[in-house]
């Protein structure tokens, strides 16, 4: 069955032009000019999908000041985006299957416009929460839409690269947003960001209607039990996101966090229990809990934890030594370039018969970069991190593309019904891995800071001549503004304590870099041993999946 647009114009699609999957557009033989148009729009939409979140992350501090938010409230803004973004890919996939690609386009564009239109009113915290929640939905739809447009613009043999390009461009958008944000808010007015987001969404809205996607097949996708499973999953994921984000802000001993985690486990567990016993499940829990898929999910989550070294680790240390966004523009341009380079190398060097090799390269780069960063100190500046963070950025995109390809191959080899299960495993491992990485590293860094501060404190004694001299030197700076010598002495001591706190934080970041380096090294050694064993025995891990996929593709062509 097809959606209504399929019969418009009287064009009958050839067998090789038919959509491979219900809910996806057909792939007719376009003239060159139209292919270029599809390609340009695809690039724009893919970048825009990641750009929305990038602008939020880059300007969260400015947004907090603009709306007079507490740290806890700004954390809820992050939760609002992640809780909707984590699972919307599942719902949108079913929407495409049930109602067709054209309705999906209208939903994606409508949510994007709504999210950015609401922000224009600058109506306060509650509206910002709603806007960010809608943005999470829109971002998920935009990335998929960008991939579809890219596939229309690429030659038939290279269409699979459209998936990797779309995913990669959404990742490039994150450092790109940080690189251009200082120029956008140069006057201190964060509403310029809201204006830009709305303008970009208008361009996207116009583009997809000027050059629409070809129609595709539809089929019945929703069942009554989906109305039970999805709300349970969504609520459970929302509670889990709240636990991971607010845990590091309010600290893990806060009583309500335990209830949130318990509620998340109960709701997610109930959803999986329902799916496990359904005749026609939305999520194939037996496949999702099989050995290979569990290894795939854990590896993906672990990589996101390790890659948190870039955002929380290096970024946090630079903030500790006093660097602000204006001083990090070149730093983020370099990360953007390294991410783009990683995407190009991934596409050129991708070998579906050996998808472990990119993961090995990524782990090696992460380990080397993390160990180099352990030399950071009070005088560290962005240029000290150019090479190491470029390595991290390259590793991030090099890994995620090959990981997505592995999961996709495993799902397609089992059948089209397994695509939703793959989407769930991949998106959840990436979202939760990223949030858990920041949460875990933040907890480690906080604990290590306290340990180092206690060690430094034991060495700070007023009876020590060096300490007394340091206090006097700092107190002397207040001679012109404070007449009371006691106040000057107290101010000098306060400055020394602040310096000790900053030194302790830097030492804790170095401990964190070392921990990441050790974990990445262990993971590299284990994976390398497995890879060498497979090569020595002539074992090809994805051989069965590739054979099954070739059979499916051959049947589809016939």
Our count of helices gives 18
User: Could you list the spans in which at least 5 consecutive residues all have pLDDT below 50?
Assistant: 1-8, 553-558
End-to-end Cα distance: 18 Å
Can you summarize the main beta sheet? Answer: none
Helix % is: over 70%
Note the beta-strand portion.
under 5%
How many β-strands, per DSSP? 0
Mean pLDDT: 78
Rg over C-alpha atoms, rounded to the nearest angstrom = 26 Å
The secondary-structure class comes to mainly alpha
Helix-strand string: HHHHHHHHHHHHHHHHHH
What form results from the Cα inertia axes?
A: globular
Explain what you see.
It is built from 18 helices and no strands. It starts with 31 loop residues before the first helix and ends with a helix. With 558 residues, it is mainly alpha-helical. The radius of gyration is 26 Å and the shape is globular. Helix 3 (71-99) runs antiparallel to helix 4 (101-119), helix 4 (101-119) runs antiparallel to helix 5 (125-153) and helix 14 crosses helix 18 (543-557). The chain has helices at 32-58, 60-66, 71-99, 101-119, 125-153, 160-184, 191-210, 226-250, 255-276, 285-288, 291-320, 329-349, 356-373, 386-414, 419-459, 465-476, 485-537, 543-557.
Describe the structure in brief.
By secondary structure, the protein is mainly alpha-helical. The protein contains 18 helices and no strands. It is globular and about 90 Å long.
Which key phrases capture this entry?
single chain, 558 residues, mainly alpha
Topology:
Layout: H1 32-58, H2 60-66, H3 71-99, H4 101-119, H5 125-153, H6 160-184, H7 191-210, H8 226-250, H9 255-276, H10 285-288, H11 291-320, H12 329-349, H13 356-373, H14 386-414, H15 419-459, H16 465-476, H17 485-537, H18 543-557
Helix pairs in contact: 1-5, 1-6, 1-7, 3-4, 3-5, 3-8, 3-15, 4-5, 4-7, 5-6, 6-12, 6-14, 8-9, 8-15, 11-13, 11-14, 11-15, 11-17, 12-14, 13-14, 13-17, 14-15, 14-18, 15-17, 16-17
């Amino acid at each position: 069955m097809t959606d209504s647009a399929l019969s418009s114009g009287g064009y009958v699609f050839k067998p090789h032009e038919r959509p491979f999957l219900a809910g996806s557009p057909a792939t007719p033989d376009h003239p060159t000019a139209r292919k270029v148009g599809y390609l340009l729009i695809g690039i724009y939409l893919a970048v825009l999908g990641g750009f929305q979140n990038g602008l939020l992350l880059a300007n969260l501090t400015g947004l907090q000041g603009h709306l007079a938010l507490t740290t806890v409230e700004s954390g809820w803004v992050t939760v609002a985006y992640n809780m909707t973004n984590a699972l919307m890919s599942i719902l949108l996939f079913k929407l495409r299957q049930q109602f067709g690609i054209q309705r999906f386009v209208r939903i994606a564009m409508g949510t994007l416009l709504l999210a950015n239109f609401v922000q224009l009113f600058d109506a306060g915290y509650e509206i910002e929460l709603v806007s960010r929640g809608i943005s999470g939905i829109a971002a998920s739809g935009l990335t998929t839409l960008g991939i579809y447009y890219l596939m229309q613009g690429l030659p038939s043999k290279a269409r699979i690269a459209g998936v990797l390009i779309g995913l990669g461009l959404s990742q490039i958008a994150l450092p790109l947003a940080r690189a251009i944000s200082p120029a956008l808010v140069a006057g201190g007015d964060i509403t310029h960001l809201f204006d830009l987001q709305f303008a970009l969404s208008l361009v996207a809205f116009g583009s997809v209607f000027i050059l629409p996607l070809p129609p595709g097949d539809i089929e019945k996708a929703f069942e009554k039990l989906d109305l039970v499973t999805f709300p349970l999953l969504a609520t459970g994921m929302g509670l889990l996101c709240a636990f991971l984000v607010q845990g590091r802000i309010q600290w893990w001993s806060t009583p309500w966090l335990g209830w949130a985690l318990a509620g998340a486990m109960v709701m997610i567990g109930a959803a999986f229990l329902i799916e496990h016993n359904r005749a026609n499940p939305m999520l194939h829990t037996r496949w999702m809990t099989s050995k290979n898929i569990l290894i795939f999910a854990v590896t993906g989550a672990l990589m996101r934890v390790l890659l948190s070294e870039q955002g929380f680790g290096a970024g946090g240390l630079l903030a500790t030594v006093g660097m602000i966004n204006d001083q990090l523009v070149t730093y983020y341009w370099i990360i953007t370039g390294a991410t783009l380079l990683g995407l190009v190398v991934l596409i050129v060097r991708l070998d579906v018969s050996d998808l472990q090799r990119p993961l090995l390269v990524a782990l090696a780069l992460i380990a080397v970069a993390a160990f180099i960063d352990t030399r950071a100190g009070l005088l560290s500046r962005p240029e000290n991190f150019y090479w190491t963070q470029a390595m991290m950025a390259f590793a991030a995109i090099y890994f995620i593309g090959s990981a997505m390809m592995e999961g996709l191959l495993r799902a397609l080899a089992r059948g089209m019904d397994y695509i939703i299960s793959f989407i769930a495993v991949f998106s959840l491992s990436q979202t939760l891995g990223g949030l858990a990485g920041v949460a875990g590293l933040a907890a480690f860094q906080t604990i290590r800071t306290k340990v180092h501060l206690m060690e430094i404190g034991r060495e700070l004694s007023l009876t020590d001549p060096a300490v007394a001299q340091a206090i006097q030197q700092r107190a002397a700076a207040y001679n012109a503004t404070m007449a009371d010598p006691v106040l000057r002495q107290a101010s000098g001591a306060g400055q020394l304590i602040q310096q000790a706190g900053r030194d302790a934080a830097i030492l804790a970041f170095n401990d964190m870099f070392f921990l990441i380096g050790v974990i990445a090294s262990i993971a590299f050694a284990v994976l390398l041993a497995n890879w060498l064993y497979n090569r020595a025995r002539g074992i090809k891990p994805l051989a069965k999946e590739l054979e099954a996929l070739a059979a499916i593709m051959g049947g589809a062509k016939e």
